[in-house]
Amino acid sequence: MFDKPDTxxxxxxxxxxxFMTPGLAFFYSGMMKGDNSVLIVLYCFIIYCIVTVLxxxxxxxxxxxxxxxxxIGNFEYACNIGVNINPHSFYGPTIPFSMFFFFQLxxxxxxxxxxxxxxxxxxxxxxxxxxxxxxxILVYIPIAHxxxxxxxxxx
Length: 155
What we know:
Blueprint: H1 4-30, H2 34-64, H3 97-119, H4 125-148
Helix pairs in contact: 1-2, 1-3, 2-3, 2-4, 3-4
């Protein structure tokens, strides 16, 4: 069974990270020319949506699934199969596994949004979408697996 205060703490932490995305967008828009302000807010929210879909489909599974040689996970949690209210024995034994999924999703969303401030006005929208997908798949997912999976090589 899970611990209610632990679950509440993780939920509040995840929601605070979720609020960091619009905060980051407004922070970056304050440093840009006026015509790019709305664009950077839009870019941050679009990145949020793209990462959420990729994380749900396969990202979480590749990071926290059973390790394949310490470098990448498998697809055991693809499309949230097996991610439910029951706690995981290693990843948050006192919180629901679905809450752990949500907490990790928030960090997966905020990290590519941090990059937006450097590319605004320099990259087309289509290129941003491709870059976000490739960056999440080729950089974030493997490194997160190495560091946070119980069998990752850098754990």
